[in-house]
Design brief:
The chain has about 130 residues and is mainly beta. Helices cover about 5% and strands about 50% of the residues. It has one helix and eleven strands; from the N terminus they run E-E-E-E-E-E-E-E-E-H-E-E. Strands 2, 4, 5, 6, 9, 10 and 11 form a seven-stranded mixed sheet that branches. A hairpin with a 4-residue loop joins strand 7 and strand 8. The longest helix has 7 residues. It is globular and about 40 Å long. The termini are far apart. The model has no long low-confidence stretch (mean pLDDT about 95).
Amino acid sequence: QVQLVESGGGLVQAGGSLRLSCAASGRSFSNYGMGWFRQAPGKEREFVAAISWSSGNTYHAGSVKGRFTISRDNAKNTVYLQMNSLKPEDTAVYYCAASSRGPYYAINYHRTGTYDYWGQGTQVTVSS
């Protein structure tokens, strides 16, 4: 069992930066692939970024590539999402998720169904 708690969201002007954190409790955090997703009002939850258990592989959605960076610190049981050059269209609730599905995760990291555990979300609002 893994519990995930996101923090770091807030209101920021376009062009600004935020750093989201996701603290995990439970055993074997380092064995989980981790992901960030977001959901804007009236839209489906969409993939933002993912990172393998060893941090050897990172993946970013095309819409955030070059602006957002996912990272993790297994010693602190925490995964981060550094968000720079924020745009109004980045406004959404951001969710952290954990997957224990090994090889399946490596191919399907962008699918919500790949993840076993989800946080409660943190609101990010970017004003124009």
